[in-house]
Amino acid sequence: MSRPDLPIEALPAWTLLNDITFHDVKVAETEESGYGLVSERNLSTQEETFDVPTLITVPHSLVLNVECVEEYAKEDRNFRQLLDAAGHQSTRGDILLFLLVQTALASRSSQPAAGVSNPWTEYLKFLPAIIPVPTLWTEDELHLLRGTSLEAAVGAKLSALEAEFDAVRESSSGIPCWNEMLWVENTVSLGDWILLDALYRSRCLELPRSGESMVPCIDMVNHSASPTAYYDENSKDEVVLSMRPGTNIFKGQEVTISYGDTKSPAEMLFSYGFIDPGSTAQSLVLPLEPFPDDPLAKAKLVAFGEPPKIHMSRSKDGTTVDWKSPFAYLMCVNEEDGLEFRVLQETDGSRQLRVFWQDQDVTTRTTDFGPLIQSHQLSAILRLRVATVIQQRLQDQLDRLTFSHIPDVQPLAAGYGNSSPREACIEASLLLREVERGILETGIQSLEKQVSAVDPSLELMADENVVAYLGSMETAESDLANQEASNEEDEDDFS
Ligand SMILES: C[S@@+](CC[C@H](N)C(=O)[O-])C[C@H]1O[C@@H](n2cnc3c(N)ncnc32)[C@H](O)[C@@H]1O
User: Fold this and answer.
1) Atom 27 in ligand 1: which residue has the minimum CA distance?
2) I need a labelling partner for 328 at 20 to 30 A (CA). Which of 34, 253, 348, 457 fits?
3) What residue stretch is flagged as signal peptide (predicted)?
4) Measured from the CA of 30, which atom of ligand 1 is nearest?
């Protein structure tokens, strides 16, 4: 669907009509980040002040959150049917349905069969049609992410978006007006759904009272590691953008906020389409899979209840990596260690999977196996298993990152319609690869120290149970070797 654009010069008229006030700032084209907010005069605030200047005020009625979607459904009976059939599962899902309908309305020149226009119908026309997040990258650009944590994440997201769109299509096909407008006339496609998801992800805010929301005009403010403004809700529930205390903004300078300083580079790229090295946390999240030959793998996944992951974060000085992976502990314990699954029949006939650890019901504590194994007699061995699993997973990821073939790319020259990756995608992916490689290498080194048998002072290897366990393994191995040697002798005899 082609969404008609409105020039940014028309935004002041739209804001006036909708009671949004701008004080000494305007939305304008920036050099590198699309539209942004620019100061129209020199502004400054004292360090210790509560009386900070307000730059933008947006009425509560324009805040697009789950209540706003509900209110809209009260005015529009047809949308109510669509929301009841395909919505009410998440704030994001309801807002996407609302945006889908507004986009469909905005793209129609004739009187629509369904849907009631509201301020968002027009506002959407000011928003960019090109959003640099990886779910909207081309095939060639996605190849640049091979071996990074985003490789699997972007693929999984695209599959999830396709499934979501199919579900909306399916559940609304029985409602005549939406069936005609959305599906028979093919007014919207999967591509539109992916674009709306990207718009939502890159522009939604977490407000203190209104929760997850989109706010017109505040969503025109770009990010900086040294932000000069922040958003909040005032006593009238209006959303306000205010200057930070102790800042100076010169005439013509961009006003910025922080999109958060605890997000990983992958998260920044995934949500916003850029990485700011000055404000990202040195962290990395990798998916983890149970051992393929573990007969309890399925039960462990069901009992764990969420996708297994490894979270890693590197210290500020870059020398150590901390990791967390509650599933890795569950993954590494077995029946002989005291793990048991039982299926219990409830009085209402339903069946429930229960998890037992050393005869204690720990069904509600499956993410706690780290602490749970502490009291086990072979706790050090179990921790050694876990450390080895994590180390191997990091090594596999590092190998994939190192050996995945990155095409020798030439950036897309402006104005040329070829399929080469865009320069911003190349730069962002190279930065992501560099950061993730550093975290993986440091993580592997930290784990190597833990599991290394070379340094006897190290915690795991110094544990007497581990030494005894490895000693028994060595004896078993040498018994096996002796047995094989004597078999060979036998074979020699036969020959
Ligand atoms: C909330 S919107 C801000 C307004 C946006 N620039 C526009 O043209 O509508 C967030 C998007 O702005 C861009 N952006 C914001 N801050 C940026 C930065 N520091 N560097 C690069 N792009 C940035 C990214 O494309 C991001 O997805």
Assistant:
1) 272
2) 457
3) none
4) 6
User: Which atom, in ligand 1's list, is nearest to the CA of 271?
Assistant: 27
Ligand 1 centre distance from Cα of residue 308 (Å): 31
**Every domain of the chain and the residues it spans:** 8-270, 283-462, 471-495
Cα 70 to Cα 91: distance, rounded to the nearest angstrom: 11
Q: What contacts 129, CB < 8 A, 6 or more positions away? A: 3, 5, 195
CB 412 within 8 A of CB 418: yes
Q: What is the whole-number distance in angstroms between the Cα of residue 34 and the centre of ligand 1?
A: 6
Its pTM stands at: 0.86
| Euclidean distance between CA atoms 73 and 83, whole angstroms | 8
Amino acid, res. 463? D
- At 347-396, the pLDDT tens digits run 888 899 999 999 999 999 999 999 999 999 999 899 999 999 999 999 99
Specify whether the CB–CB gap between 72 and 118 falls below 8 A: yes
Pocket lined around ligand 1, Cβ cut-off 6 Å: 32-36, 128, 131-132, 202-203, 219-220, 222-224, 272-274, 276
Q: Which CATH architecture has domain 8-270?
A: Alpha-Beta Complex (3.90)
pLDDT tens, residue by residue, 14-70: 999 999 999 999 999 999 899 999 999 999 988 877 788 999 999 999 999 999 999
Burial 373-401 (b: 16+ CB within 10 A, else e): beebebbbbbbbbbbbbbbebbeebbeeb
Taken in order 404, 408, 414, 415, is the CA torsion positive or negative?
Answer: negative
128 Cα to the center of ligand 1, angstroms: 10
* For ligand 1, atom 20: residue with the closest CA: 33
Contact 130, 414 (CB under 8 A): no
What is d(CA 225, CA 284) in angstroms, rounded to the nearest whole number?
20
The atom of ligand 1 lying closest to the CA of 224 is 19
219 CA: nearest ligand 1 atom: 1
